[in-house]
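PROTEIN ENTRY
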Amino acid sequence: MKQRPLTIKQRDVFQFIMDYKSNNGFMPSTRDIQEAFSHKSQTAAQHYLKVLRVKGFLSESVGKARAYTILKEL
């Protein structure tokens, strides 16, 4: 089954993650993502991270803060 492409918002979040990592040397927290996109809670940021993992753009190390790895570029 072919993976659906990223939506515009998903691309924006992923681009933010890549830029943040490039500028800071580490991944953004869910709070960083929440604040950058004016979400009311961190749940929205967690949702975007989950979607990016499912679509193969990120991987996660369980039990570690900010422990995401970028698997592919836009």
About this structure: DSSP finds three helices and two strands in the chain.
